[in-house]
Amino acid sequence: xxxxxxxxIQRDEKLEQLVANLPDHVWQRIASYxxxxxxARLSLTTKTFQKKVGGDPxxxxxxxxxxxxxxxxxxxxxxxxxxxxxxxxxxxxxRRIRKGHERxxxxxxxxxxxxxxxxxxxxxxxxxxVHGHQLPYSFIQLAIRHEIYSKNHGIDPxxxxxxWRDTETGWTHTTRxxxxxxxxxxxxxxxxxxxxxxxxxSMRHLLYDPRDDYLPYFSVCAxxxxxxxxxxxxxxxxxxxxxxxSYLRQLRSHxxxxxxxxxxNYLAVMCDFCRPARRCPECPTEYLVEVKLTEDKNDAINxxxxxxxxxxxxxxxxxxxxxxxxxxxxxxxxxxxxxSFTHVGRRATAGIFESKMSHAIPGQRxxxxxxxxxxxxxxxxxxx
Length: 384
Description:
alpha+beta, 3 domains, seven-stranded mixed sheet, 14 helices, elongated, F-box domain-containing protein
């Protein structure tokens, strides 16, 4: 055991001597090709590197123009500060106020996780879940730190799961989270009771929030206007079967009687266009639109109704930062060169999530949400 330790020490001394033998200007030339974060990492490796690189890399890293690189450098130190959280707008570590007792609350409740001058402002990064609910980035950090480091570093992702009903819109939302390979996967399932035979105007009142730039009430990524998501949702609504018409009601309108109208099939049969699951080609987000027969416990006369169910699965990244995580940036729409079919691969995010939660994979096939790759945004008319 001692011989092995001595051999390691001797090897390190030889490597240190090789670094010292190389002239200073050569190391400084090498450092000129690195970003400020890598230069700071190199200078802190050994005292020899600190002398060879020269200057003050930490002072250069703290300059305002190197704010992004400073956050990258601090992300490497995240595991050494279980009692603190990395604040990306401030590029500092703030001490956690309620360590281990952080809970996700509604947006209109003051819920600071650490003392920060920007905690009550809109500077702190967050992602929209559904209408009126957002997920602060700090909770993404806590959930991932809990899984990859220790329980003292964060909170269990199960504590982020919620279920609530929006009395104003009638939508019911359920959120669940899990960590897979260091990434936080989220599932947001939203449903609302829908009547058959809705007009286009009625569908818009059911789906959109006119006070929030006509965003859907359910969960969507930043590219929902470009693809066929809203066409799929409206197509699914058109498959809700009509209520039964008695023979007496049929005779009042025409002399022909139809048994299918008197005894219709209550199960909604969706078509080949709205049945498959869809994957957004520009971010790791997948959708599944369904029409289910659901019990309405608040209606004693007609307890069983058809409900529109929209499920979204997303990969929220590895917690490295709101501007450094490729998945998070793609979901938010700030990263334009992300190809989900290349990065995610053949196995879907929905399959990974569901196999871990219920050991069952959704049976629907997966196709592109935007097969023609049209990026019209608000200029397009299909989303409205």
